[in-house]
Amino acid sequence: MSLNSGPIKLGIVGVGKIVRDQHLPALAKDRDYLLTAAASRHGKVDGIANFPDIETMLDAVPELEAVSLCMPPQFRYDAARTALEAKKHVFLEKPPGATVSEVEDLKALAAANGVSLFASWHSRYAPAVEAARAFLGSTRIRSAAINWKEDVRRWHPNQDWIWAPGGFGVFDPGINALSIATHILPAMFITSAILDFPENRAAPIAAHIAFRTSNGLPVAMELDWRQTPQSWDILAETDKGAMVLSGGGAKLAVDGRVVHDEPEAEYPMLYRRFAEIVRAGVSDVDLAPLQHVADAFMLGKRNVVEAFFD
Question: What's the pTM?
Answer without folding.
Answer: 0.94
